[in-house]
């Protein structure tokens, strides 16, 4: 049932039945390297283009997630998926083979939250026994689309983030497991007018702040009611700004905040500046790192808040600012 | 001696441009445009050529030198052919640079594959 | 008006919070990288002059050979690594221009000869050519006007 202004508290909470993470070489060399279900040394994943590689990652992640739950593609009612590329081609090409009716989404790097929210809402509403939520990003395809061709020799600023090559797929359903999605907070677009596409963390932090506070108010909770509040990819710069924004509104989340972009890479050793980013960042970290802790009961309640920067190369060139959006997913051990 | 001049003058131009890269929001593409246009303007003002005569490759290798080259080409063409020379000189002078970049880049595309950054 | 003020305030705040590269260190690295590339150019120039080529032809050979080097280094994924260290030292010399043409050519070939390489090879370097030619045209036009009006010989 609806809670507050933007949230839903599920009466019959859907279960996060299984998940899978597929990652690239650099991610495999990072702190979470051994936790991913599949790490591919070759960033083309045996395909011809970066886009096809990204599609393959999505397909593999979906197959792995379903396989873990011994579920066939035919058992999955709907698939909710998206990526960063124009017209969401990585998703379309990736999940085509599965033959599952699908909703193509765009939430930039918040897509994992958007997909999980919609999948949970569909299960909770009784529209199906199993739903798949999947998202991905690939360094090669993202750089080519948003920044420069890979061979271009440029120096990245310290606020720049490294797009994660990875895909996370989540099977949400009515079958019992150790993690439930008990609520969602759907975010609004928040724009503080920043026009710096090389400082995504700063562009998205206001949206994260807005959604986290909205979630706490809608569910009448305090920050301490969550073992962790996890943002997707604010990075080092964005995290610092988030703390300030939250403090300015009377909330302190320093103790239990975590950011996937800061966790997935070792900043010093891997030279990733402000941290990881991309849809795959939050998705793979959730699957490989956060969910196992929830399953074990090490964490009992987590607020997962992936953030997205809603821009295109055209909007950016035309002088528009970079607004942010963030969706909150409440995950609980059971 | 000319090696030393080329080194420190070329290096100095690069060091100054580094300020633009690090302290302004200018992207590399805009910086390159700025350099070429500045070179052309300084050339027209009779400043760049004497500078280049002294600095050698330290002034001709940076993109400002490319801009100066464009100006020189247009000037010579105007001197020789009048009005129509304004349209002839630019590409004529930059022919080697642009052709070489295009041709070798295309050949490279036949041989090389894009590789992930590390 | 209020919203604009808010946005300006946020922008100023973000600027303070965002770390920046150590400028003097980066300038020194750019100095060295750019200096080396220009020295290599000087070496080629000197060789050409020894071989008796005139100034313009020597300049042509220098550009051409530096471009070849840059394209090869781009293909082998070495030039981007030098740029990470050298910054402007690799952007400013003509080798930076060559890299900005070679990189798209290599990357976009997957989209085909015409629509990929053909359309996108000048994605980064296009402005250099457009505004370079246009600026020289404007200056040339001014020069022509000054000439015919007798102000300049």
Brief account:
The complex is a heterotrimer of chains A (334), B (118) and C (153). Chain A is of the alpha/beta class. Chain A is 35% helix and 23% strand.
The chain pair with the largest interface is: B-C, 81 and 79 residues
Which regions of chain C contain 5 or more consecutive residues with pLDDT less than 50? none
N-to-C order of helices and strands of chain B: HHHHHH
Number of domains of chain C: 2
Mean pLDDT of chain C: 95
Q: State the shape of chain B.
A: globular
How many strands appear in the DSSP assignment of chain C?
A: 0
Task: Outline the low-pLDDT stretches of chain B.
Answer: none
| Cα shape of chain C | extended
Q: Strand fraction band of chain C?
A: under 5%
Radius of gyration computed on alpha carbons of chain B = 17 Å
Major beta-sheet overview of chain C: none
Quaternary form: heterotrimer
Helix content of chain C: over 70%
Average pLDDT of chain B, rounded to a whole number, is 96
Keywords:
heterotrimer, B: 118 residues, mainly alpha, 6 helices, 82% helix, C: 153 residues, 2 domains, 80% helix, extended
Provide a descriptive summary of the structure in words:
The complex is a heterotrimer of chains A (334), B (118) and C (153). Helix content of chain A is 35%, strand content 23%. By secondary structure, chain A is α/β, with parallel strands linked by helices. Chain A has 2 domains: 172 residues, Stage V sporulation protein AD (Peroxisomal Thiolase, Chain A, domain 1, 3-Layer(aba) Sandwich), CATH 3.40.47.40; 154 residues, Peroxisomal Thiolase, Chain A, domain 1. Helix content of chain B is 82%, strand content 0%. By secondary structure, chain B is an all-alpha fold. Chain C is mainly alpha-helical and 153 residues long. Chain C has 2 domains: 100 residues, no CATH class; 29 residues. Chain C contains 8 helices and no strands. In chain C, helix 3 packs across helix 6 and helix 6 packs antiparallel against helix 7. The radius of gyration of chain C is 21 Å and the shape is extended. Chains in contact: A-B, A-C, B-C. At the B-C interface, helix 1, helix 2, helix 4, helix 5 and helix 6 of B face helix 2, helix 3, helix 4, helix 5 and helix 6 of C.
